[in-house]
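agent> fetching stored inputs for the guanosine-5'-triphosphate docking request
agent> found them:
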Amino acid sequence: MVPTRFATVALAGRPNVGKSTLLNRIVGEKLAITSSKPQSTRFAVSGIWTEGSTQLLFMDLPGLFEPTNLLQDSMVEAAKAAMADADLVLFLHPVTEKTLECPPQVAQLSDSEASRLATVLTKADLIPSSDRPLVRSPSFFVSALTGEGVPELLEWCRSRAPAGSFRYDPKDLSTQDLRFFATELVREATFELLEQELPYAVAPVVDEFREASGPVYIRMILYVERNSHKGMLIGRNGQMIRALGQRARSKIETLLGEQVYLELWVKVLLKWRTRPGALRMLGLPLGPKSEGK
Ligand SMILES: Nc1nc2c(ncn2[C@@H]2O[C@H](COP(=O)(O)OP(=O)(O)OP(=O)(O)O)[C@@H](O)[C@H]2O)c(=O)[nH]1
Ligand SMILES: [Mg+2]
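agent> prediction call returned; pasting tokens
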């Protein structure tokens, strides 16, 4: 029998470089939410890839940047922790950007642990091969849109995966449950429909999730930071929250493959992005800036 291999692979890089889109392309399902706006990934999202004798657990992470509030601190902390835990780290950077600016969290790795690091130049579909820069190995030009470069990247991960047994059922796609993905899809809808800062101030939490009979019934509370946010999220005559509910429901129905009844309630959780207690309540890990607060 061929010995099996297992590795965890972190997708790391600055916000908006295409980490979540690549995770979805690798697992072949829309798991992680994506957005043209930066900082859309708030929680790490796992995707399981199993082929032949290899199983890889990909971790789509929040972007790496200089945090200015406790929520951002929590996101960057989660990304750093997952990078430290992973067997392999893929540093994603858009090929369209001239300078390959390496965040300090990645630069540290390139000195001491280069063997578990590869550079992935994303959005390769935007630059013809003749115009691409010369790069040092191991680097991959990858397009999550066309799939270019993905097999080569997976082969690199496979060849570096340590010998070990599978940790998950090969039929599983993720370690996270439908409740989690339902809240994420609501967040994705907020990025599509709400302006500017507002999507960043919304935190959906499942209040009830009933699958027993008929349409799946999901009730969520959308926490926002201020009363003014609540007004904007509900909109005139409730138009915005209705549009958001419809958009999110259709996304959740696609995921579950069945009818969903989605009820959304908006509540204020005052300045939740700056309070450790509120972040904890929302299931977010605390970063170093939360200490002593
Ligand atoms: N043309 C092109 N666009 C891409 C590709 N991959 C991602 N994008 C776009 O880049 C934007 C950001 O993609 P995401 O996958 O959300 O980026 P991310 O790194 O997960 O961003 P954060 O979670 O905010 O850190 C979206 O508008 C994507 O559609 C690609 O291969 N080609
Ligand atoms: Mg993302």
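agent> quick read of the result: The chain is about 30% helix and 20% strand.
agent> awaiting further instructions
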